[in-house]
Amino acid sequence: MATVSTHPINAKWPASAPDLLQLYSFPTPNGVKVSIALEEMGIPYEAHLVGLSDAEVKSPEFLSLNPNNKIPAIIDPDGPEGAFVELFESGAILIYLAEKSGKLLPKDPVKRIQTIQWVMFQMGGLGPMLGQLGFFYKFAGASMEDPTARDRYIGEAKRLLNVLEQRLEGRDWIMDAFTIADIAIAPWLNALDFYGAKEVTGYNDLKNVPAYVARFYNRPAVQKGKDIPPRP
Q1: What's the Cα-to-Cα distance from 92 to each of 97, 103, 159, 165, 219, rounded to whole Å?
Q2: Pick from 38, 112, 152, 203: CA 20 to 30 A from residue 104's CA?
Q3: What is the mean pLDDT of the segment spanning 23-45?
Q4: Helix (H) or strand (E) holding 47
Q5: Cβ-contact 209, 165 below 8 angstroms
Q6: Mean of pLDDT values over 30-54
Q7: How far apart are CA 93 and CA 97, in angstroms?
């Protein structure tokens, strides 16, 4: 029978409370989705800091849990009907946690799939595009003389921000109430500040999106979860 204590990842990130859900993460936009969700849902867990270096995310221990060598990942020793569950991909984890807790995912079938639709909007569009914007605007790609890639991701960031600006007109949250869609989306919007890209993407000219991000980060569970696991 699989247990947290016998899982290969335990050799590098030993669990002190193996009966709890185990989170392996780093406080990036993708990583804090899960810690924020756990705090919002009130699910007890133990957090392990997994650094972003190859020595950690490409270690045999971490690859035994996530062969795609990306944070976050979880182990839940008490899954459906007591099953031992291992999961990677932040969007999948959010859906799993919502179903486990019965929180932050509407019961109505139409609203449920619409909520998941917005989670996929973040997973397939907002996250990858803003991540590439960060690379080409702030990090290594910023030194490239050819502006094609940089201009592409600036333009795509503007387009996606306007999709959200329209969606949030007259709304506090992406859906009728706070859901996992907000937990997926808001941390990536906040990353524009880290990238120093608010001005170039027109973020500061928007009305609904900045108010939405401020509202999100004003939640006590978000304030706690955004710093878990603590940076070294």
Answers
A1: 9, 15, 25, 25, 23
A2: 203
A3: 98
A4: strand 45-49
A5: yes
A6: 98
A7: 6
Q: What is the pLDDT of residue 153?
A: 96
Domain ranges of the chain: 8-103, 109-221
Burial level of 64, CB count in 10 A (0-12/13-18/19+)?
middle
Kindly report the CATH number that applies to the domain delimited by 8-103.
3.40.30.10
What is the percent of the chain where pLDDT is above 90?
95
pTM: predicted TM-score of the whole model, two decimal places: 0.97
Q: Which residues contact 40 (CB under 8 A, 6 or more apart)?
A: 103, 104, 178, 183, 219, 221, 222, 225
Of 176, 45, 190, 50, nearest to 111 by C-alpha is: 176
CATH architecture observed for domain 109-221: Up-down Bundle (1.20)
